[in-house]
Amino acid sequence: MTAWKRVAITSVTICLSLSTLTVAALAQEKLPRKDVVRVPAIGDGLCVSNVFQANMVLQRDKPIRVWGWAAVGEKVTVSFVGQTAEATAADDRSWEVTLEPVPAHSEPQTLVVKGKEETVELGNVLVGDVWVLGGQSNMEFDIVKVEDGELEAVSANFPQIRLLTVPRGKGFEYVRSFERLLEWSNWSKRHFSKGDWAECTPESVRDFSAIGYVFGRRLHMATRVPIGLIDASVGGTTVETWTPQDVITGIDGAETKDLLAAWDEKIAAWDAEADLQKRVEKYERDKANREKQGNPLPADSQPPSDLRPGPAADRTRPGYCYASMIRPLEGLAVKGAVFHQGFNNCFSGSAGARMYGQVFGPMITSWRSAFGDEKLPFCVISLCTAGEPQTWENFSRPMYDVGPLIREAQHQTYRDFQQAGDETIGFVSSFDLRKSWYHPQIKVPAGERAAKWALVTQYELLAGRGSEQRWQPPTIDEVVVADGVIRLTMSTSVRTADDSDGRMLGFAVAGEDRVFHPANVEYFADGVDDRNRPRLKKNMLVLSSPHVAEPVHYRYAWARNPMANLVNNQGVPLATQRSDDWILEQTPLPLEIPEGMDARQAARWASGQQRKELVRIDTLRRLRDAEATVQELASKVEAAGK
């Protein structure tokens, strides 16, 4: 690239030729701590959007749109692999061209953009498949921090895999490009590159998405096609922030409308001047206290003077992350997307989960629209584990959790698309990759599972008889409630993930009283064979419990870290789901909220009441089980004595 850009390093402005020095390369320099290197989102002269760079991958077999900025009325010519297209910069300086689709190119190519006086050359460009990685911190979580991550990183010598991490947006207004940054991290004590395409090496991959890298690595190893990975995930974000504002405001759901109204109130109530005054007063208090302690602030220390935007710039605000991180990618041709999110939607009770179910489908459709493909392959990785594992002793108490409701909404959204004939929607469970931390570090299998979906459905490299079972979770196709049991007919045979004792775990059953107990799960016996052995149908399960005389509903994997082990014959887990529609705050006790409580107080009170009841249920069940065991042993002793 021969164009010159102005790059700010704190208070110093320098000129750099980006043909010889990228932002990532600056990471090797000994820059002062906390310095920030920036390539602006939009340059002063002829430039392209920062998504177009040397070292990138362009999508094969789809029209290639390229856009940027130049002087008003300037004629711009774009050339790539023998094609040329022209455009004229509009009144806002923007221009855009579209090139015809090209096949995969493993040999580096050069994209050339010419204006009246300037030329931009982007070298080392490959053509292959580009995948977008979305979600929050469990997608963002870097490879070297996960189990076997260092092994993955040191082995990451894949020059035909290219990596891009989109910088976090810093404004709500729609933008068509992003900055390229080099930022100092006090936590890691080093600079991080954001917004820079890089070849995949053991060094460049270290800070990249673990799930995303493993997914892309597996695809590249199988296809030998160049793979571009764009990580557009941000920790602590919600499903609504990844949905366009105009889309979410058009959703006709009571919970979604309530959410939007609450945000409008927060934004309207924000007083930037009052906030500044509080911060100044805090500064003065801290200054006085430190002087008393003999540890005064530095002489050049000043009280805050900036007016903060408040909730209007909150990264969880509906539409915010879409506007600042997906919008700059709109129009880019890509192969598909993988999305892993849900934790920060677990704090608003069952109403928040219902909102999730209303928003998630439109979010997926919006992303497909953004990348110009209504059939864009989209894989959902469901909410991961958190908290201590569910056990026989504490089985009921962990069921009071919003996490399973979010997983249910994710799975149901996938099923809705699938049942509507969508052949490019995918789903991967991750609740069985167990760690108590809310950043479970077992990420490699999650990336591999998503890769199986892609290799079966998009590349047909795992095709053949039973290929769908390599990624597709089993479904429950029929439910029959009769004679004190619930009988389920599955889409395929199921088994336990761990065959050490063969006990099938994860189902719970309840009667009309809404009290769930762990279910005994057995295969349906359809008569006997010629040796008088039960003829078991391994696609049919019978659920029962000695504590539930007349079960009417079931739940499966219903905890944040559930005790569940059912998989299909290829090891794909049965997803979190249920047959009831009982509200979290009203199960098992049908509560009446005391007068005078606001929504937050009511939720806290209901949670306390229900959790106490669930502890009581666990205790009573354990006592009854102990009594039954004592009676059984007494009977055996008596029989032995006779």
Would you mind describing this structure in some detail?
Strands 5, 7, 8, 10, 11, 12, 15, 16, 17, 18 and 19 form an 11-stranded mixed β-sheet that branches. By secondary structure, the protein is α+β, with helices and mostly antiparallel strands. Among the domains are: 4-130 and 151-205, Sandwich (Immunoglobulin-like); 476-586, no CATH class; 589-642, no CATH class. 27% of the residues lie in helices and 26% in strands. Helix 4 (210-223) crosses helix 11 (444-457), helix 6 (254-269) packs across helix 9 and helix 9 crosses helix 10 (403-419). Strand 23 (507-510) and strand 24 form a beta hairpin. The N and C termini lie far apart (94 Å).
Short précis:
This protein is of the alpha+beta class and 642 residues long.
